[in-house]
# Entry
Amino acid sequence: MSKMKLSLVASALVGAVAFTGSAFAADPLEKIHAAERVIHKAAAKSQTKIDAIQEQTQDLVIEYRSVVDEMEINKVYNDHVAKLVAAQNDEIASLEEQIAEIENTKRNVVPLMYRMIDMLEKFVKADIPVKLELRTQRIERLRATMVNPNVSTSEKYRQVLEAYEIEKDYGSAVEAWQATETFDGKQITADFVHVGRISLVAQSKDLKNAWVWNNTSRSWEKLGDEYLKDVTKTIRMARKQAPLDLIKLPIFAAE
# Structure
């Protein structure tokens, strides 16, 4: 009986020891698994933070590159604007110099134009009286234009040069016109024709009388009958009523 109780007690102790040993063996393993789970969670959190930081870093890199590119663009544009400003300043300086030159030129041109008009007037008075009234009116218009504030200096100068050009053309033109003039003390309506500045003649409407202008004596001189046909032919040629042909007209020697 005693041996049997001792055997049961011994078996119980062995079972308890075995159970306790198993518990002691399982506890460290669980701790290891728990630690691993903690480590995994921490690693996951760390990875999440790393991913977030990496994403932010990429965003910052992209933003940095964008800022750098924009700075480069702004630098190029600023350099371009600086060059434009420099060019505009040079142009402004050039324009200011030109304006100063123009003002100086205007001061010199205005007296020159008055002298040109005076010389033109003297020339017309000394020249053969081809369309004298028309030429005199042109000079009067030039003088009126000179004091007109609504006409620019350049336009005034253009009109003066145009008047000189018209006067020059008289020297090579052959023109005919009708007018009333005093011949031999009588007012007579006649046909006039000039051949450049070589000859100026007139003929009565009945074709029976003709005169030539003597620029030395500043008077009209009667022509002989031998000139009547040639004067008539010259008038017709000037009016394009007859083909060009040889003519005989009186010419005074040049002085």
